[in-house]
């Protein structure tokens, strides 16, 4: 499996389980990259996918937030 996809699926699993709720802020790209042992580019790709699925929203300069748990 592609690394970005694994990161995206892990975040999605946290959203689906309720561990991350609508409005919750995700850790920074740097923190996620460190946690998963991947590059920030990989994390950005995962976040991009989650944005396309409308699971998270990115607020420039503020962070990434859970959009919905549908």
UniProtKB/TrEMBL annotation:
Keyword field contains Transcription regulation: yes
GO biological process, one term: negative regulation of DNA-templated transcription
Record-linked CDD domains: WHTH_GntR
InterPro entries recorded: Bact_HTH_transcr_reg, Tscrpt_reg_HTH_GntR, WH-like_DNA-bd_sf, WH_DNA-bd_sf
Gene Ontology MF term list: DNA binding; DNA-binding transcription factor activity
Domain of life: Bacteria
Alphabetic keyword roster: DNA-binding, Transcription, Transcription regulation
A Pfam family annotated for this UniProt entry: GntR
All residue ranges annotated as the HTH gntR-type domain in the record: 1-69
SUPFAM superfamilies membership: Winged helix' DNA-binding domain
Protein name in the entry: GntR family transcriptional regulator
Species of origin: Phytoactinopolyspora mesophila
């Amino acid at each position: 499996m592609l690394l970005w996809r694994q990161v995206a699926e892990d975040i999605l699993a946290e959203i689906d389980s309720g561990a991350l709720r609508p409005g919750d802020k995700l850790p920074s790209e740097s923190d996620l990259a460190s946690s998963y042992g991947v590059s920030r580019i990989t994390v950005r790709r995962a976040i991009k996918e989650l944005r396309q699925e409308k699971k998270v929203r990115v607020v420039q300069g503020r962070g990434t937030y859970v959009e919905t748990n549908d």
